[in-house]
Amino acid sequence: MKNILEFLEATASEYPHKTAFSDGESSLSFSELLSLSRRGGTQLLRRGARRGECVVVFMKKCPATVAAFFSVIYAGCCYVPLEMGLPMHRIRRIIAKLEPRTVICDESSAEKCAELGYGDRILPAEELFSCEAGPELSAVRRKCVDIDPVYIVFTSGSTGEPKGVTACHRSLIDYASALCPVIGASPDSVFAMQVPLYVDACMKEILSAVKCGSTVFLMQQSLFTSPLNVLSFLNEHKINTVCWVASALTLVSGLGAFEEGRPEYLRTVCFGSEVFPVKQLRAWQAVCPGARFINLYGPTECTGMSFYYEVDRAFEDGEPIPVGQPFDNTDFMLLREDNSPAEEGETGEICIRGTAVTLGYYDDPQRTAAVFVQNPLNPHYPELIYRTGDLGRLNERGELVFVSRKDSQIKNMGHRIELGEIEACACMAEGVESACCLFDREKGRLRLYYMGSADEKELRGYMRSELPRHMIPAKFLRMDRLPLLPNGKIDRKALMEN
User: Which of 52, 146, 240, 310 is deepest in the core (most CB within 10 A)?
Assistant: First the structure.
């Protein structure tokens, strides 16, 4: 196998009329998904799409968006998912960096895309699927190889400049082949997708569907304003498998929802992206006594999740839940600062090797070279590993345990956030000369310090228009000047003590 489209084609042949994706309002069976994808791929080729080029898919979270993804793949291109929930300044930077010739839009994004000056590049979703599949698809397919890119997912950058992680067919094929047996994905699996489609985490559900014939219900973020609504959704659609960020699970269990209801059908609960408090794990175990609980860990740069641990014992309060062992065909090492291997039980940087390692950052050789590096333990031939920036250690059972991040990166609701991106946004506001964002870990709050004439209320309003809610600082503090270190950098420690 060299192309993930083979998963879709085989499953559509075996389960043509089975629901693949649904958002409660619209649904696509596997045969409908295949048909739309082939039609969309043909349309892109007839509009001049070239093999390997980037096509932006700027659509809301719905089944048609998944069909647009596969349309791009059928055209031999790689898709770049965007959604209105992303910060507008990030959308501008992503599109400016890519300079795509085609931006697929729907009614949720077309007007905004036109306002941003990309009207001549817009391909409406209804037009994407308007022609019949043609022979062009076969010609493209013959030239495809397994290291061709499938998607580019942009994550935050330390300087505020988004980084485009580029994943290929081989990485996704191996990821699906390893992930699905671990989580027990099958034709009987019914997933509830909690994450947006513009993050790589959605591939857990997408790959489970197209490889195993599972059904996926797409959840809207608004559901999570009410934990009881979340439970109702799970039970209404008889959801038996979830792969959610830990904070989404905590939102449900921590706000007392289980006092009034419980998920009736859950048999597999996967969590990841953040540390899952043992107290909340116990709460979910109590209402789902027969379910499997699996901790998943891995960076976007390694095609999503790379490690797993199925909970097989009780944990004390404060005891870390292991991230366990790597998926099949994935390996790791713990390295000290001097690149020597960490001793047993010693903390080191988690570095990953294998086909999970992606192609690097799109059009960004400098930052790619900084973390996609030659394996320092192998001087004999080229072998790239990915330095995650995460610190870990092996416990007495030989299980990998996440310890902390090396840098200032934080995670919230499954979103990986760089403080530099918030600072970059603030500095774009009128009247802001310089800005520094800090995370108060004790209180779990973001604080923004800035220098300039901008009014605090106006600055907050501006940032609310540019950033999602989870990136808005809780406190804004205007200063006459920001303290500096001797090297000219902002003295973040002094600010934190302010």
Answer: 240
Residue 230 and residue 257 in contact, taking contact as beta carbons nearer than 8 Å: yes
**CA distance to 27, 99, 131, per residue, from 128 (Å):** 18, 20, 8
Q: What is the pLDDT of residues 397-433, one digit of tens each?
A: 999 999 877 765 566 555 667 676 788 788 778 888 7
User: What is the Cα 301 distance to its own chain's centre?
Assistant: 10
Query: Contact, 435 vs 450, CB < 8 A?
Result: yes
Q: How much is the mean pLDDT over the chain?
A: 90
Q: Give 442's contacts (C-beta < 8 A, 6+ positions apart).
A: none
- The continuous run of DSSP H or E covering 458 comes out as helix 456-466
Tokens for 494?
A: 């002094």
- Do β-strands 19-22 and 215-218 pair in parallel, antiparallel, or remain unpaired? parallel
Identify the three-state secondary structure at position 358.
coil
CA distance 167 to 199: 12
* DSSP one-letter code for 222: G
- Indicate the pTM of the whole model: 0.83
What share of the chain has pLDDT > 90, as a percent? Answer: 68
Q: What is the mean pLDDT of residues 26-36?
A: 98
- Is pLDDT above 80 for 277? no
Task: Report strand pairing: 348-354 vs 384-394.
Answer: antiparallel
Query: Three-state DSSP class for 283?
Result: helix
- Give me 11's structure tokens: 């499953």
Q: What residues have CB less than 8 Å from 240, skipping those under 6 apart?
A: 188, 189, 190, 265, 266, 267, 268
3-state secondary structure 28-83: EEHHHHHHHHHHHHHHHHHCCCCCCCEEEEECCCCHHHHHHHHHHHHCCCEEEEEC
Cβ 58 vs Cβ 105: under 8 Å: yes
